[in-house]
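so ive been stuck on this for like two days lol. basically i have the seq below and the ligand is adenosine-5'-triphosphate, smiles is in there too. i just want the complex predicted, nothing fancy, no docking runs or whatever. if the output looks off dont worry ill sanity check it later, just need somthing to start from for the group meeting slides
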Amino acid sequence: MRIAVVHRDRCHPVKCGTECILYCPRVRTGDETVVIGEDQKAIISEELCVGCGICVKKCPFQALDIVNLPEQLDQPIHRYGQNGFVLYGLPIPVEGKVTGILGPNGIGKSTSVKILSGTLVPNLGRTDEEVSWKEVLDLYQGTELFDYLQLLSQKNVKVAVKPQYIDQIPKVFSGSVRDLLGTTDERGKLDYYIDRLTLKAVIDRPIATLSGGELQRVALAACLSRDADFYFLDEITPYLDVYQRMAAANLIRELAQERPVVIVEHDLAILDMLADTVHIAYGEPAVFGVITHPKGVRVGINQYLEGFLPEENVRFRTYAVTFDTRAHASDADREVLLEFPAMTKGFTQFSLTVDGGEIRSGEVLGVLGANGIGKSTFAGLLAGVLEPDTGAMDTRVRISYKPQYLKGDTEATVEEVLRQTTTKFDTSYYQHEILEPLSLAQFLQAPINTLSGGELQRVAIAICLSRDADLYILDEPSAHLDVEQRVKISRMIRKHAEGRDASTLVIDHDIYVIDMISDRILVFEGEPGIRGKAAGPFDMAAGMNRFLEALGITFRRDKSGRPRINKPGSFLDREQIAAGEYYYTEISK
Ligand SMILES: Nc1ncnc2c1ncn2[C@@H]1O[C@H](COP(=O)(O)OP(=O)(O)OP(=O)(O)O)[C@@H](O)[C@H]1O
Ligand SMILES: Nc1ncnc2c1ncn2[C@@H]1O[C@H](COP(=O)(O)OP(=O)(O)OP(=O)(O)O)[C@@H](O)[C@H]1O
């Protein structure tokens, strides 16, 4: 079985020589394997295509993919139009349980949530005709999903959804947090959620002025407060600090005792403590995706990292994703490259104090701290996009800065934008050290304004690292990236820093990313939203301990090296706290 996918945003028959038609051996023999449709996009007939792949190589805009599917796949559940992405399988919500969905970007996780939450009516892969619910139900007869789909088709099920891209909320809602949440209090638990998600301080603020972390928590409170039969949460961790992630996870577990919850999540440490079972999503991003049967959470995560599904007998990746444990060498003999001065910056409600410090040549300085404690403000002061009230950064230091929130509002293609930032685009260094680890090659011809959150993030990292600079600043590079990409960008940022007469500062809430990347750590402390102060830089163990001790969270490593959060109050948790080993530990080895 074979599928042909045309990435419509990259298909421009007016601008190319219609190479897909010109070089197709079947077209040369006289049939219509590839034609240009009325909407000026290529259409590939999957019945006629022989799968030679010549059109894929010849297309100047990388707009085509032809893929042979694994044999055992049966009927698709949905296809986004002719030559569009195809999805096989659905997750199953279960009474009393949190069901997770784990997989790379662009593999159909959100699509499956849209189907189960009733936003998208499945078409069983048939894009040229109306497909009735009866046909869908016939297909699921005798399966665990039948009852659920029947209720859904009869519109007899009430669902609550936390959408993936919360930055859309201010575009459709203009009132205050109180106005928005007031309409959702259907179970009389809103005050409880406001308290547990520490939203009291922002309750009268206009939605448009909230930070990403605050908006994420408002969206969560809005979803959890509804009186629904089923709850669907599409990524809860972006922009939340570790403490807030744990608080959100605990609330979701509480809710799952009463109502089924389905969650999509890339943060493995959180998914691990939150979900009872996981469905793995595999396939080829933007081409096809398969949702597996449910697996126990620990087994499922390990199979996903391994890239092999023993029950299905499918290897979907040729290599395993491994979590390196890095020996953190003392680098005290590195030369000091630059000094940042003592600075202060005050907003109406918040003030930041920074004691001066130094960053060494080739060093990566990790930055940890709660939401709203001044990390991005500090980055803005260093980068010169914010004016300090006292102190001033040396303007001779050349800075390359990736901000936390990305704008993707240009129609220029990825390649055009990258070429504007570097003269090295055509070198093999650029291919191997930038494009490959960020998996950018396949969408170089895509216009920036059509990229997903994870794709845009990777382009922004490439732009930042492409410039010549003395100091590279990356604010939350892991947001919206899948697990594999997080491991890859961590290695890549490290490699970029090593052996270069430059320094790098990385702010991130993913503890593992900070562990992988950093030589030393700056810890931001204070009272979120009111005052913050940068402490350090500390060596890795001291920095991690200082940050995690304040949160009361300990980590251990499992056999594969993956960091896992210890259950609060468990034997290991108590033992590590007593030994003062919050992250790097001798005890759990
Ligand atoms: N309305 C749509 N029309 C056409 N294609 C779509 C549509 N929505 C999504 N797609 C495509 O379907 C594929 C799967 O998208 P989906 O959002 O379900 O992935 P995902 O696994 O949730 O990814 P991520 O982790 O990045 O959120 C992507 O290639 C996407 O471009
Ligand atoms: N331009 C501004 N005007 C007023 N207040 C601001 C402004 N920028 C930031 N703040 C406030 O300053 C505080 C610190 O914000 P900052 O973005 O530096 O925090 P952060 O530690 O980076 O948080 P996060 O982890 O959520 O990104 C927050 O309370 C924020 O609301």
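The first strand starts at residue 2 and ends at 6. The mean pLDDT is 90.
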